[in-house]
Structure formats: structure tokens, C-alpha cells
């Protein structure tokens, strides 16, 4: 269709298709706008991950693991049938405290110390892997605090007697007759010869409300052979 002088259709002034304004922007403007929007999204994403990372740093689970807590299975701890009363006991009651300290990248170092449910006493720190390494020393020191001289108690010498003696009234009375007065009612431990080196001490439970401490078997004395009769003459 023809427009202009001599034409019946008046001319129309249409805006540029690139922008709604009467003035057209160059093609580079659109590229700059897209880069700015992308940069804005990148900055927001980086800021988000930075905040998340800082939140994780402030609330690392390793820091919570560094707090001392009662070892599970021991009096007052999880999975234990004893020591959960609201009021503290009237006598010293030994237990085991533990924690894990980070040593490097994804590494932890178990630590143990003895504790008491009746007073604020806590023993020195012992390092070890547990299962008789480090935890045994802490449990023993907790018993030194609650029952001084516990190593002088009469021991159980066989593995079978560990279960048989507490179930027999006569044998149990015979074993505990040498205990100091009041120790049995306070939960004094049962001492037994260990089967191997660093056998872990057994914590108390509902069926046996006292620790079973394993002590090394005393060395067997060498039997002196009679002198040779020929050497006497």
C-alpha cells in the first residue's frame, strides 16, 4: 500500500519493536541487562551458601560431642536401668563420663573420666579407644572415690562363678562377708579375675546393681623343686 503525498492512507508512526519507548536502545543494552540479572542471581546464590556455611560452622555437631556426658549403659546414662532418680543418691555412686574430640579431618578421639552421681567429683581424663582402653582406668578411679581400697576385696577366680556366686545365697554371703560394713548396700563392686588383658569392666544393670571390675590374675609362683639328692653329697 502506498503512503505519502497523493495517497489516501495517512502515514502511521509505529514505535520500535525492541522497546516500548519512542527511542530505540542499541542491541548491546539487552546483553548488558541479561548479564546484570545473571550477576544478581550469582551474588544471591553465593550469599545464601555463605550463610548456610556459617550456620553449619556455628552449630557443628563436633562441638556438641565435646561436652562430657554419661557413657551409655553406665549408671545415669542411656540404656541403663540405674541412676535415673530425680534426687541424687545419699552415697557416692561411680559412673563413667565420655566425650569425642575432633583430631583432624573427620577424625575423633574418645576421652573418658570417672564421675559420681552424688557429688560434683570428676576424675582425670584418659584417652583410649574404649572396650577396656581408657574407660577401665576412669571406672577404677571412680571406684577409688566411692569405695577406697576396693582392690582388697575378695575376687572371683573363675568365669563360671561370675554368674553362679551372685545367684547362690550361701556363696554370695560367704563372698561379701569380707566387705566393709555398708558397702554392699551402697553398691560396692564385685572383683573378678580377668580372662585376658584389658578386659572391659561390666557396668551394673537391673539384675546386678553393681559394677563387675576385672583385675589381672596374679602371677603364678614358681614351685620350688626339691634339691637333687646327688648334689647334697
Provide key terms for this protein.
3-stranded parallel beta sheet, globular, 7 strands, 4-stranded antiparallel beta sheet, about 230 residues, disordered C terminus, alpha/beta
Give a description of the structure.
The protein is α/β, with parallel strands linked by helices and 233 residues long. It is 28% helix and 15% strand. The protein has helices spanning 27-58, 61-65, 135-146, 159-167, 169-176; strands at residues 69-70, 94-104, 107-116, 126-127, 155-156, 190-193, 212-215. The strands form two sheets. A four-stranded antiparallel β-sheet has the order 1-2-3-4. The protein is globular and about 55 Å long. It starts with 26 loop residues before the first helix and ends in an 18-residue tail after the last strand.
The whole-angstrom Rg is 39 Å
User: What is the oligomer described by this structure?
Assistant: single chain
The share of residues in extended strands comes to: 15-25%
Physical arrangement of strands within the biggest beta sheet:
1-2-3-4
Q: Tell me the structural class.
A: alpha/beta
CA(first)-CA(last) distance:
152 Å
Specify the helix fraction band.
Answer: 25-40%
Order of helices and strands: HHEEEEHEHHEE
| Major β-sheet profile | 4 strands, antiparallel
Average pLDDT rating: 78
What count of helical segments does DSSP give?
5
How would you describe the shape?
Answer: globular
Amino acid at each position: 500500500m502506498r503512503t505519502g503525498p497523493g495517497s489516501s492512507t495517512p502515514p502511521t508512526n509505529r514505535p520500535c519493536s525492541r522497546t516500548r519507548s519512542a527511542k530505540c536502545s542499541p542491541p548491546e543494552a539487552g546483553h548488558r541487562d541479561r548479564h546484570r540479572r545473571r550477576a544478581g542471581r550469582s551474588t544471591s546464590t553465593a550469599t545464601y551458601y555463605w550463610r548456610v556455611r556459617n550456620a553449619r560452622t556455628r552449630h557443628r555437631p563436633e562441638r556438641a560431642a565435646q561436652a562430657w556426658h554419661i557413657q551409655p549403659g553406665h549408671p545415669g546414662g542411656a540404656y541403663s536401668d540405674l541412676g535415673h532418680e530425680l534426687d541424687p543418691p545419699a552415697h557416692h555412686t561411680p559412673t563413667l563420663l565420655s566425650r569425642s574430640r575432633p583430631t583432624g579431618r573427620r577424625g575423633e578421639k574418645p576421652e573418658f573420666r570417672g564421675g559420681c552421681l552424688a557429688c560434683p567429683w570428676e576424675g582425670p581424663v584418659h584417652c583410649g579407644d574404649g572396650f577396656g582402653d581408657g574407660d577401665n582406668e576412669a571406672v577404677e578411679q571412680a571406684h577409688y572415690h566411692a569405695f577406697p581400697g576396693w582392690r582388697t576385696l575378695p575376687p572371683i577366680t573363675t568365669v563360671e562363678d561370675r554368674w553362679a556366686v551372685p545367684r547362690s545365697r550361701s556363696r554370695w554371703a560367704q563372698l561379701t562377708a569380707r566387705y566393709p560394713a555398708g558397702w554392699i548396700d551402697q553398691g560396692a563392686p564385685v572383683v573378678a579375675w580377668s580372662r585376658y588383658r584389658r578386659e572391659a569392666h561390666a557396668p551394673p544393670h537391673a539384675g546386678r546393681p553393681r559394677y563387675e571390675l576385672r583385675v589381672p590374675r596374679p602371677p603364678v609362683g614358681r614351685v620350688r623343686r626339691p634339691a637333687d639328692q646327688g648334689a647334697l653329697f
